[in-house]
Structure formats: structure tokens, C-alpha cells
Protein: ArpR
Organism: Ureibacillus sinduriensis BLB-1 = JCM 15800
Amino acid sequence: MNELITKVEEWSKNKGLDKAESSKQFLKVVEEVGEVAAALARNDKDALRDGIGDVVVTLIILAQQNDMDLYECLNCAYDEIKGRTGKMVDGVFIKESDLQEQ
């Protein structure tokens, strides 16, 4: 994984994407997320695999543009969720604090 992330970051630098405007990069993230949704709707596993990969690539670049890296962002998110409690409701995990608001 480390090697792949490094390759994406180097590819981004070679294309000048590391210095591009991150709001434009976020549009690419959303575009790729849309492709994931389309793959799910069509039950297309190959397109889903590619789409998830494309989302990760765009997120690696978005983090890079903001002087962050994927590990830093993922660690931050995990620290937030690791002790989270809640329950599944209709196939969706709802965190405890959101359940109390209902």
C-alpha cells in the first residue's frame, strides 16, 4: 500500500496536480464517487473495483494538495470512530448520538 500511495503522489507531482486547486480536485472526487454509485446500481463488480480505486487516488491527491497524507487522514477518522457505539437500522450503521436525537 505504501508503494502504491507513493506512486500516486509521484504521478500527481509529475502532472502538476499536487499544486492544483483543491476545490477542483474535490470535484474529481465527487465525479468518481458518482461512478461508484453507477457501478453499484448496475451490479458491475469490475466498474465498482475501478471506481473505488479512482476515489482513493483522487483522495490521495486532495490530501497531498493540502499538505496531508492518506495515513494522517485515515488515522484521524479511525481515532474518531474506534470507540463509537450505535446500531444497524435498515442496513445502515447509526451512531449512538444520532439515535438519541430521533
Summary: Strands lie at 86-89, 92-95. The chain is about 70% helix and 10% strand. Residues 2-101 form a domain with the Helix Hairpins fold (CATH 1.10.287.1080). The radius of gyration is 16 Å.
